[in-house]
């Protein structure tokens, strides 16, 4: 972790309710500029709700969310995106009746006036994902799950956001596609991209992350350096398959 860089994102003691059910209990975390932070936990732990709170998809009932000194709690998702946040949602959420290229260009829509830069970035995405280049005019709904995840990553990259929020990128993918997805995420990390990652695959998430938080029943129960957490006996037993 590079402590010399300011916190790009700060989540301060947020509670989230779905009706009468409380999903998050005083969750706090921060992401420094240029850092990869992973949020781990099992089903119904609150990790995806944490990400949705940042993206404006749910509104906390208490606490604050600050992006670069700006309170974004209660902001609409479109406003959060306009502030420089990109999203790779769970389940990919591509537009099935639009082509691969059209889906990618939607990611660049906030930068639409910079056509030369977008064209260069589009070429970079196609270079990273040759399968997408081969299928650039194909409808996104006809792609495999792994190809759609590549498309979701490419769309987020074209946003060129200051922060990329990624929700369960390995879910439902074959080991081959998981490796391909994380190869790209490791490249993003090397390029200095700030990432907030929600992931059930704790082993690979801890390899990628600088720091991590572990959620259980909506509470942060562990946090720290990712390499240290990977050696933690509680994390190994719960998430890494250790006996």
Automatic annotation (TrEMBL):
One Pfam family name is: ABC_tran
Q: Which InterPro entries match?
A: ABC_transporter-like_ATP-bd, ABC_transporter-like_CS, BCAA_Transport_ATP-bd_LivF, P-loop_NTPase
Q: CDD domains of this UniProt entry?
A: ABC_TM1139_LivF_branched
Q: Which PROSITE patterns match?
A: ABC_TRANSPORTER_1, ABC_TRANSPORTER_2
Which terms does the UniProt entry file under GO BP? L-amino acid transport
Source domain of life is Bacteria
Domain (ABC transporter) ranges: 9-242
Keywords recorded for this protein, A-Z = Amino-acid transport, ATP-binding, Nucleotide-binding, Transport
- MF GO annotations: ATP binding; ATP hydrolysis activity; branched-chain amino acid transmembrane transporter activity
- Protein family: Belongs to the ABC transporter superfamily.
Designated name of the protein = ABC transporter ATP-binding protein
Query: Which species is listed as the source?
Result: Achromobacter aloeverae
Read off the lineage from the record. Bacteria, Pseudomonadati, Pseudomonadota, Betaproteobacteria, Burkholderiales
């Amino acid at each position: 972790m590079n402590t010399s860089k300011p916190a790009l994102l700060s989540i301060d003691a947020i509670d989230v309710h779905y009706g009468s059910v409380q999903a998050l209990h005083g969750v706090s975390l921060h992401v420094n500029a240029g850092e990869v932070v992973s949020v781990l936990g099992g089903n119904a732990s609150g990790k995806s709700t944490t990400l949705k709170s940042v993206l404006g998809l749910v509104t906390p009932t208490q606490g604050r969310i600050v992006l670069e000194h700006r309170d974004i709690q209660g902001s609409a998702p479109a406003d959060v995106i306009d502030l420089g946040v990109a999203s790779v949602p769970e389940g990919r959420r591509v537009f099935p009746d639009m082509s691969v290229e059209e889906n990618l260009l939607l990611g660049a829509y906030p930068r639409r006036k910079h056509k030369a830069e977008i064209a260069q970035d589009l070429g970079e995405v196609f270079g990273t994902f040759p399968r997408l280049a081969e299928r650039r005019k194909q409808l996104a709904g006809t792609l495999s799950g792994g190809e759609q995840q590549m498309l979701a990553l490419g769309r987020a990259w074209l946003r060129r956001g200051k922060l990329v929020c990624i929700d369960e990128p390995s879910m439902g993918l074959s080991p081959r596609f998981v490796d391909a997805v994380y190869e790209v995420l490791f490249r993003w990390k090397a390029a200095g991209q700030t990432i907030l990652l929600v992931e059930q695959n704790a082993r690979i998430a801890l390899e990628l992350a600088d720091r991590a938080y572990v959620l259980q029943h909506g509470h942060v129960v562990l946090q720290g350096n990712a390499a240290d957490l990977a050696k933690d006996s509680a994390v190994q037993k719960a998430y890494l398959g250790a006996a």
